[in-house]
Amino acid sequence: MQPPAREPLSHARRSAVHLEVRDHYQTEDPDFLAWREGRRFHPGNREAWWEGWHDAVHAAVTRGVTVRRARVVSEPLSEYVCFEYDYAVTNLAAGEQVRWLPRRQTKGLAIPAVDFWVFDEELVLFHHFSGDGVLMEREYVSDGTLAKWCMNSFEAIWERATPHEEYKPA
After folding, report:
1. What CATH number labels 6-163?
2. Gyration radius from the chain CA atoms
3. pTM exceeds cut of 0.85
């Protein structure tokens, strides 16, 4: 399945931010299953993991778009989030900035209960998942007020979050 953010990312002019708030996603993901079997992602071995999504991020960053991803996580990390932590080296290699915020440090923040992307502070892409982590619906919303609220929430999380290079999972 093509990542739903690829198309709007290809049109972004300034920024793309992604907030992830779940501890579990689709556990039948082939990359996750391979990781469970011992596969690891090494930045120097791009041919083993570089995909179309990485091309899209790299192209956006090359044309000046800032791409940031923040993850709000429970500690200790779930097995799936451990996989995401290891996989983040691929996001970084493509040009994304990644930060981590333990859920216990979110007191006082307004955090949406759904994952989202915001492109150029205008278009919001919400991801609606089932309880077991299957993506059920993608919802694109062009609403300046909602986009601003999502951006404010993201920025508050980003400010508290730890850059990937410094984050040590509990």
Report:
1. 3.30.870.10
2. 15
3. yes
